[in-house]
Amino acid sequence: KAREYYEKALSIEIEIGDKKGEARAYGHLGNVFRSLAKNDTAKEYLEKALAMTIEIGDKKGEARAYGNLGNAFRSLAEYDKATEYYEKALAIAIEIGDREGESVIYNSIANLSLIYSADYNKATECLQKALAIKIEMGDKRGEAVVHGSLGVVLMDLGEYDKAEEKHKKALDIAVEIGDIELEAISYGNLGSLSLFRCKYPKANENIRKALELARNIGARGLESLCYHELGRLF
Fold this sequence. Notes:
The chain is mainly α. Helix content is 88%, strand content 0%.
């Protein structure tokens, strides 16, 4: 359905000669095909989006296209290529002062660092930069998400107290802004951390809180993860 609507948008953009809109539609279609695991087709559309943004001098669109291509190459497990495109996207975002775009790319580089090279130091560095931008922008939800990501990385590094601190910070923000899904995720992360540290009563308490919230909002994937963690706990 998404593809159908983006194709309608694309045909109108071509008809009226709106190059910027056409490039945007190519980008959206590329992301749809990537979600469908049709990565070669996705790459084709994203490359069209990139070429058009360069042609019309849309630097923000160009950065977004490089970022999307980085995601596509990551899905294809072409990690060197993904890194190259992320770095191009980051350079443009910094050049034009697109702080939101910059934070998105830092997150992408952090995730790639974990997948590709298990480089926890680089992932931490990028997430810290993304966090600083989120705080600067006043993006509370984004801040909480990055705190949670840092908590996961710190747990893998064996820095359990720092990891707990980050997950609690994410939880506090989630409660403050009334984001039930993020609250459930934070409780789940705290539960997983407690389980890993063999703090079973605390793990049980947090995972069950996450489960209750997930049920309340119909987050079935999250609910499934909670059951997995309860299975590990017992």
